[in-house]
Every structure is written in C-alpha cells, then in structure tokens.
C-alpha cells in the first residue's frame, strides 16, 4: 500500500512539474528594442499536389547567402526545408512599407509563378519558431462567429477569385502586412513574441529607381493587382511590419493554431466507440459468465467417457487446439513486428500527452517515432522468437532475420519508391541521399542487432506448456456454415474495431493531407485504448464461436479478425481521397496511396497482435479450466 502511495505522489509531482515548465524544450527569447528578429522561410506547400518545393525554387528575393536551417530528422522526413530570408525585422520598430527588392522577370519565370498559384501553393514564414498565420472567419456549430487561423498565406490568387478581376489573369501577392504580437513585463528584459499574423496583398507598384519606396505603398485603395500573366514584368516586393502588445503568455502562444472548433465531434467519436465496447463487453461477459460457465459445469458433471464423446462444442477440439498453425514462421514474425509497433505507439502517445511532442518542437513527433521504432527491436525479437519456439520451430536464424527486415523492408521499399517520385518531380520533400544512408545505418546498425538480442533471450526463455496435450493425428474439421467460414468471419470481425476509430481517423487524415495541426492526443489516447479493447473482445467472441463449431484453426483467424480493420481503414482512405481532396496529378495520387498503405500496414500488425494475444490467453484459460482424460 505504501508503494502505491509513493507511485501516486510521484505521478502527481510529475504532472505538476509538466505544467510548471514549457515541455517541448524551446526556451523563450527576449528581444531588446531594435534587435534583429530573424525571419525564416519554409517549403512551399499545396493541398492539391502534396508536393512541397523549396522556397527559393521560385525566383523570390534572396539573401546574400542561403543557409539551410533544418534541425532534426523529423523535419527532413516531413519535407520541411527551413532557410534564411532577406527580410529585416527590428524588435519594436514599425515599418509602413519597406522594399525587399525589385526584380525583372521573363515570361518563363512568370509562367512558373502562375503555375504554382494555379496549384494553390502557400508561402510559409517562421518568426521566433512561430509560423505565419492568416485570419479565417467562420461560424461554429452553435452559430457563433469565430476566427480561426490558417498556417501560411497564398502565393497569389486567380482572377476569377477576385471581385472584378480578369478570369484570364493570375495575380501574385508581392506585399505582406505583418502583425507581430508581443508580451512584456517588468521581469522580462525585452519583448517575447506571442503571435505572428500576416495579410498578403497584390499591388502593381509604380515605377521606382533603386530602393525608393513606391508611391503605391501609400495609395493601396486605388492600386491594381500585380499580374503574372504577361510576357515580362518588373515586380517590387514590399512588406510592412506592425508590433502590437497582447496579454498572452509565451507558453500559450500556440493556442490559436491548436484551436479545436469541433470538440463535440470528438466527444461523439468517443461515446460512439464506448457504445461498441460496452456491446462487446456484454457479449464477452455473457460468454464467460453464462455460456462458458454452463459448458464447464456440464463437462465436470459428465460421468462416463461415452457422454464426453457424444458432447459437441469447444471441448472436443482440445487435442488439436494447440497444434502449430501453417506458416508459423510468418505468424511469429508478424506478432513480433506488431509488438514493436505497439510499444512504439504507446511510448509516443505518453510523450505526446505530456506535451513533449508539441508543434513547437517541429519534426519532434516523426523523430520520436523513428527512434522509438528502432529501439523497440528487442521486444520484437523476443516475442517473435518466444512464439516461434512455442511452435517448436528450429530455424531461429531465419526467424530473427525475417523479424528484423520484413516489415521495415516493406516500409523502406515503399518509401524509396515514393522518394524517387518526389525527386523526379524536383520536390523538396525528397529525402537527401545522406539521410537515406543514415536511416539504413539506424536500421542495420541499431535495430537489427537489438532484434538479435531480443531473439536470443526469447529462444532461451522457458516455453509455457499448453494446458492440454496435442493429438498425433489431426481431427477433421466438420463442414462450416457460411457465416463461420474464414473469409466472412474475418471481414465481419474487422468492422467494429474500425467503427471505433473512423471518426478520429478523419481528423488524422485531415491533419496530414490538409496541412492542419493535430494536437488532441488526449482524445486520441482514449480512442486508442477503446480500439485495443474492441480488438481484444471481438477476437475473443469470434474465436469462441469458431471453437464451438469444432474448427480449431484459430491462430491465423485470431490475428486476421482484428487485423482486417486495416482493410476498412484503407478503403476509407480511398473514400476520403475521392470526397475531401482535390488531387488530380498521378504522382500526387501515388504519394497519397503509398503513404496510406504504410499507415494501413502498421495498423494491421498492431490490431492483429492485440487480437491474437487476447484470443491466445482466452484459449489457454478456458482449456486450463477443464479436466481432460
């Protein structure tokens, strides 16, 4: 009891500590009056093509020397390419209209601008690690007007989208109005930036010489937009800066980006999932407390062997239920991989819920997932080897090698193909060769040795003897009714686990493909726990019905019953692609389905593993409860 109290007090102190400090690890910076505040640029992005491009792949104004400022592996894998810019922003000093540069463009250069504008590309700026945001008014579910923020701002606009604009023209945003919100107090040495809002404009500036400020900067109401649908043009790039005090704490400055306008839908998702779990829990309780209890009582009251032989049901297959399945090597490898991905997911969720993987720590989530997957090689090797040993397998080297390369190899091959597509399209999302080498080094230098270490202990571990003996001659499985045949029962088993998560899946897909922030890990952790419960319970129910039908081939069926939810996940992603996205390029479609396939594969091994072990321990429990002569 004393130990439990100590653990509870420690957890409370940890929670209190996490609220006392800004967890992502980014320290606040105070800017003194007149101090230069670096403005960085990130990749150009579009929800229509899903292909990021380097900011300077377009002929914008450039600094004297372009510096790459990517900080971690996750940023590279996510396609972020952060670089310096020629913008000069001084702390606390407003600027009405500053010249960035004047550039004369050829027809070919203007055509590139026009193509990117047609594809709805957005410019992404960073100031003190805060992304530039544009206001977007909307009405919430209660009818109240609210303001949300979109990350970045459009490169330009099409004529048909501008009131009174020429439909045949495309206009570029060559002026940026920047509002920088700051917070200060007596205890602070300078200003802390707590907000970065931008409003782009398209202005055809008057002709100027050198770095003179064009008069159109101060007469915007009467100006016309800057077109790029011409043979040549000299474009003046300008910007304005305004500093405003806001009573916002520095640790709360990300709140506007993470504003959750549809929290009712998330609660509905959880309630919907809980209803599924309650239904399945009732089914399992009925089996355990009523049907199964009655079976056990009846078996114990049997007086003669003849009565036992006349009895039908799950007890009759006791001599075959622990017979090793076909393709036992592959099953054990998938189980080991499932444990690896499952443990990685759980640890990642813990760090995310505590706040260590906030959007302020750009690329942190992806970095954590890659590193944790590599480090979880030991659990993968251990569980794969232990199960394979239980199947009386002898090829332990082959088992270990397959565990270390099968799933990672599949993911790497798909990733390499998609990376080749990105490189062919000259996208900044293509991972550099050096990073690919680093990933391979992590795989073979860290993950594979850890799998071998885990496998060593897995094969050395004592195998738990099954509660009943296995007959030498396999029992013939009777003809099954149509609804108990493998294909139908497996497909039916995957519906409920998918139903428990499909609403949250919508928001996850939106955050990935519509470039929105997803930071509701509290909701997600609850949904994940419900998913695991649903996988366990539906597999137990389907497994019990299968054994009652005297079909003892449950090993693969248990894995595939809950794992089939990944099929519905992939089918839902096709529906999402057709109804929510506006992707029309083949390469972009290939990217979408390639990455979705990798997600579905991870979902498959996790849900399959959870269902398998639930069924495994259920069967051991019920057969240990009966007396077999």
What does this structure look like?
Helix content is 49%, strand content 12%. It is α+β, with helices and mostly antiparallel strands and 629 residues long. The chain has a four-stranded antiparallel β-sheet, with no helix packed on it. A four-stranded mixed β-sheet has the order 3-14-12-13. Strand 7 and strand 8 form a beta hairpin. The radius of gyration is 30 Å and the shape is elongated. The two termini are 43 Å apart.
Outline of the structure:
This protein is of the alpha+beta class.
Secondary structure: elements and pairs:
Blueprint: H1 2-20, E1 39-41, H2 73-77, E2 83-84, E3 95-105, H3 107-118, E4 122-123, E5 125-127, E6 130-131, E7 133-139, E8 145-151, E9 153-154, E10 156-158, E11 170-172, E12 175-183, E13 192-201, E14 233-245, H4 263-300, H5 305-310, H6 328-354, H7 364-375, H8 377-390, H9 396-424, H10 433-460, H11 486-493, H12 495-513, H13 521-548, H14 555-563, H15 565-580, H16 586-624
Parallel strand pairs: 12-14
Antiparallel strand pairs: 1-2, 1-5, 3-14, 4-9, 5-6, 7-8, 10-11, 12-13
Helix pairs in contact: 4-12, 4-13, 6-7, 6-8, 6-9, 6-16, 7-10, 8-9, 8-10, 9-10, 9-16, 11-14, 12-13, 12-15, 13-14, 13-16, 14-16, 15-16
Number of helices: 16
**Can you count the beta strands?**
14
End-to-end separation: 43 Å
Succession of helices and strands: HEHEEHEEEEEEEEEEEHHHHHHHHHHHHH
Mean pLDDT: 84
Helix content range: 40-55%
Strand content: 5-15%
Strand order of the largest sheet: 2-1-5-6
What is the approximate shape? elongated
Biggest pleated sheet = 4 strands, antiparallel
Structural class: alpha+beta
Unreliable stretches: 1-25
Radius of gyration: 30 Å
């Amino acid at each position: 009891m004393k130990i439990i109290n100590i653990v509870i007090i420690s957890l409370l102190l940890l929670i209190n500590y996490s609220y006392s400090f800004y967890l992502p690890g980014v320290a606040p910076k105070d800017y003194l009056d007149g101090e230069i505040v670096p403005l960085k640029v990130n990749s150009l992005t579009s929800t229509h093509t899903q292909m990021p491009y380097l900011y300077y792949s377009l002929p914008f104004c450039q600094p004297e020397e372009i510096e790459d400022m990517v900080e971690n592996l996750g940023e590279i894998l996510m396609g972020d390419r952060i670089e310096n810019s020629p913008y000069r922003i001084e702390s606390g000093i407003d600027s009405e209209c500053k010249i960035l540069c004047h550039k004369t463009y050829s027809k070919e250069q203007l055509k590139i601008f026009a193509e990117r504008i047609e594809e709805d590309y957005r410019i992404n700026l960073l100031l003190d690690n805060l992304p530039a945001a544009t206001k977007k008014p909307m009405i919430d579910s209660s009818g109240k007007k609210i303001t949300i923020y979109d990350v970045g701002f459009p490169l330009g606009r099409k004529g048909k989208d501008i009131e009174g604009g020429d439909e045949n023209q495309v206009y570029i945003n060559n002026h940026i109005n920047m509002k920088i919100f700051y917070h200060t107090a007596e205890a602070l040495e300078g200003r802390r930036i707590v907000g970065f809002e931008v409003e782009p404009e398209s202005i055809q500036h008057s002709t100027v010489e050198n770095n003179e400020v064009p008069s159109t900067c101060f007469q915007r109401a009467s100006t016309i937009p800057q077109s790029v649908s011409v043979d040549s043009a000299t474009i003046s790039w300008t910007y304005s800066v305004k500093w405003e005090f806001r009573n916002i704490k520095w640790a709360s400055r990300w709140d506007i980006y993470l504003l959750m306008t549809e929290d009712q839908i998330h609660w509905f998702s959880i309630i919907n999932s809980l209803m599924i779990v309650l239904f399945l829990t009732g089914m399992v309780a009925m089996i355990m407390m009523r049907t199964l209890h009655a079976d056990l009582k009846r078996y114990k009251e049997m007086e003669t062997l003849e009565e036992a032989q006349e009895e039908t049901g799950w007890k009759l297959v006791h001599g075959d239920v622990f017979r090793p399945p076909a393709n036992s090597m592959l099953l054990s490898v998938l189980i080991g991989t499932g444990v690896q991905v499952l443990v990685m997911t759980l640890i990642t969720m813990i760090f995310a819920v505590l706040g260590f993987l906030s959007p302020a720590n750009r690329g942190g989530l992806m970095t954590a997932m890659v590193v944790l997957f590599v480090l979880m090689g030991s659990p993968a090797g251990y569980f794969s080897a232990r199960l394979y040993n239980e199947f009386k397998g002898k090829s332990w080297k082959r088992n270990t090698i397959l565990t270390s390369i099968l799933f990672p190899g599949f993911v790497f091959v798909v990733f390499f193909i998609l990376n080749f597509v990105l490189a062919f399209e000259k996208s900044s999302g293509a991972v550099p060769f050096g990073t690919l080498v680093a990933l391979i080094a992590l795989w073979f230098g860290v993950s594979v040795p850890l799998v071998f270490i885990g496998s060593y202990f897995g094969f050395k571990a004592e195998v738990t003897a099954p509660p009943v003996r296995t007959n030498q001659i396999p029992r013939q499985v009777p003809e099954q009714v149509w609804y108990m045949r493998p294909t139908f029962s497996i497909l039916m088993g995957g519906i409920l686990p998918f139903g428990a998560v499909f609403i949250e899946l919508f928001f996850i897909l939106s955050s990935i493909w519509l470039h929105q922030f997803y930071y509701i890990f509290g909701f997600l952790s609850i949904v994940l726990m419900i998913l695991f419960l649903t996988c366990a319970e539906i597999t137990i129910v389907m497994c019990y019905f299968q054994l009652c039908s005297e079909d003892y081939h449950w090993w693969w069926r248990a894995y595939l019953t809950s794992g089939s939810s990944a099929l519905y996940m992939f089918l839902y992603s096709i529906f999402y692609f057709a109804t929510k996205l506006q992707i029309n390029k083949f390469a972009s479609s290939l990217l979408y389905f390639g990455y979705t396939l990798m997600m579905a594969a991870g979902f498959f091994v996790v849900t399959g593993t959870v269902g398998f072990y639930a069924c495994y321990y259920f069967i051991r429990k019920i057969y240990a409860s009966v007396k077999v002569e």
